[in-house]
Fold Single-stranded DNA-binding protein.
Amino acid sequence: MNKVILIGNLTKDPELRYTPNGVAVATFTVAVNRPRTNQAGERETDFINIVAWQKLADLCASYLRKGRQAAIEGRMQTRSYDNKEGKKVYVTEVVAENVQFLGGRGNESGGDNPGYDPGPGMGGGNKPSGQRNNDYDPFGDPFASAGKPINISDDDLPF
């Protein structure tokens, strides 16, 4: 099984490029704090390269910024290439399958995005454009609608 889940802060804005076939690819790095401190009592940080493809790449490039906290779910990938000196270079990165924006709108350098609704996750299962769930705010409190009645038909219940 090859499954990676990370929560970290972007070290710089995502870089969006396109393949010769026109496929979007975004690359960025997240800084992830280790759960324990080292012998000197300092918390160490890992800097992990992330690659997102297609629509997810466009969304990451549009809405993620340096310093923004994000949760990334994906798979680990290694690849190699020969550099200009002819030396083989190995690269390890996470290929994102799902990205969640974390934190509030206040720590997003791009300002508010009132028309943006990524749905429960940016990786897949998003609603068709034009359909909005007005109770879901990807940047706000996920429990903001707690205590309000839930409109569920009997056909939706599994019992």
Q: What stands out?
A: Residues 106-122, 124-137 have pLDDT under 50 and may be disordered. DSSP finds one helix and six strands in the chain. The domain at 4-156 is CATH 2.40.50.140 (OB fold (Dihydrolipoamide Acetyltransferase, E2P)). The longest strand covers residues 24-37.
